[in-house]
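Before surveying the methods themselves, it helps to consider a single example record, giving the amino acid sequence and backbone structure tokens:
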Amino acid sequence: MYSITLKSILNDVQPIKGFVYESVRYSAVMPDAIEVAVVAREGSKARCSGCGRACPTYDHAERPRVWIMPPLFKFAMALIYTMRRVDCPVCGVVVEKVPWATGKHGLCDGFRLFLAHWARKLSWQETALSFKVSWADVYASVQWVVEYGLKHRVLDNIQAIGIDEICVRVGRVFWTLIYQIDEHLTRLLWVGHDRTEETLLAGLNCLGERVCAGIRYVCSDMWAPYLAAVKQRLSALHILDRFHIRQQLNKAVDEVRRDEARAMAQAGLLPRLKKLRWALLKNRKNWTATERRRMGELEHSGLAAIRAFWLVAAFDHFWGYVSPTWAGKFLDGWCQRVRRSRLKPLKTVAASLTKHREILLNYFRAKKAISGGVIEGLNNKVKVTFRKSYGFRTDKAREIALFHVLGKLPEPELTHGFF
């Protein structure tokens, strides 16, 4: 049996090549703090912070530097070391490179990675308050991890991508997001600060020629600039997002309901559509007992909103087909019925579906393997990230937060480990 000291624990979890832990003591300056003094190992040469080569020592700093380490129970941990300057034949006289910290940051790299991990679970402000650091320290830690990840990530075996826009702030400011939506991996690949054709082309060019050549499927909505950019840049099978098609159909039904309810009110008729908005937008399987009774009473009423609902409900059969040929026949027949329905909002949607007929049928040519549901799930995570964005005042900070949460980026390899 032998006793365990804090110095032995530090040597186990964070060994420092070329340096030794000289002493571990309570701080005489700050209460509830532990000071860890580090000195250079005898005979070891300092390394140039510019080129990384071992060089002779030129001189020492007048005062020791302090780096914050991960806390231990209620105690703050501080690493103290007097820096050397080296005489490098390439870079000249420069400060040495130390293995526990990068650049001039006041936190150890292990602590920065620790903060970045917690910043995924909490807001950055809550992370800063929990570990008694500043918001800027958390931001810098996340930025360091994201920049490392973007530099070292591997863009191989990308066969399916999803493209969508998201509103980032008031004033209808939209960003374009490119996701990888393969079965084995879903992640954020690129962020563009607009939703134009040029923005998406810039994003695809940023991914590189090799990545674009390997893409087999693209899933997006019917936004014209996206369709044009994909057609121009990629030779992949373009699949339209089912969610946005259903969204357009629901908007058409709601517009029919509003117009008819307004006309009935102006004519002094009984408001038969009152409190039926959500019943008309739901799947029939999700109706409550009251909604089921009222919709049953109005089934043969001839109201425009009821006819629109049943036309949209009939369109759900389109997604049940397997053959693109039979799906195309159903789509043509459904659009013909809508054109005869005298329901202008639905006729507009039907015209759009007819225009994009071939792209719609690509869903069946891809054997239904690609769906926009993954994209909507990722978009929800984007919204949650923005809701936790207390203190974000720049687009750069928002972009860093998105890559940190959704990018699945590689992280710096450190000797420091956490349970």
User: Anything to note?
Assistant: Residues 139 and 397 are 8 Å apart (CA to CA). The two ends are 24 Å apart (CA to CA). The mean pLDDT is 90.
